[in-house]
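Re-running the complex after MR caught last week's input typo. The corrected sequence lines follow. Everything else is unchanged.
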Amino acid sequence: MATGQQKTGAAPGRNSSQDQGFVYLPLIVGWLVPGAGHFLLRKWGRGALLAASIVGMFSIGLAMQGQIYTGAHDILEILGMAGDLGTGLLYVVGRLMGWGSNLVQVTTADWGSRFIVVAGLLNVIAAVDAHNLRTGRKAS
Amino acid sequence: MHPSHFAAVLMFALFASVVFGITMRDTPPKMVRYGAYCFVLFVGSAIVLSWVMYFIAR
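Corrected-run output:
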C-alpha cells in the first residue's frame, strides 16, 4: 500500500504544510518576483541573495543604458526578449515605465543589454530551484 | 554608468556566481565553495582570453 509520501513524491523529512497547496506556486512567484519563490519556502537568506543579485544585475544593466527588448523582428531580438521575459514583473514594469534605451550607441550599453538578459536567465534558474525545493527534488 | 570592461566582468561574475552557488548545491558551505569556484573561473577565463586576444592581435 502506497503511503502519502510516495503518492506526492515528497522528500523525507518535509513537514505536512509544505505538501499542501499548489505545487507550482514557488515557480510562478519566483519567476514574477526574483527571490520570492524562496521566501515562500522560508529560505530567507537565499531569497534575499537571489533577489539582490538578480535585481542588482537588472538595475546595473539599465544604469549602463542597456536595452530592454520590445519587439521580435529578428532571431537575435527574439532570443533577447525571451531572456528579458525571465525577469518577470521587472520586465513588465520596465516596459510600462519606458526604462532602457531604444538605441544601443555605446559599448557599455551593449554590455547593459546583456546584463538584463542574463538577469532574466538567472531568475529562471532561481525559480526552478524554488520549484525543486518545493517538490523535494532538491533536499534543502 | 560607464564601468571599465574589467569592472563589468567582476560585477557579472559576482552576480552569476551567487545564483549558481545557491541553486546548484544543497548546503551553505558547498554553496559558498561552488560560488567562489564559479567566480574564479569567470574572472580567470576572462583574463586568460583577454591575453590570448592581445597576442593574436599583435
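None of the earlier attempt is carried over here. The mean pLDDT of chain B is 95. Residues 5-57 of chain B form one domain.
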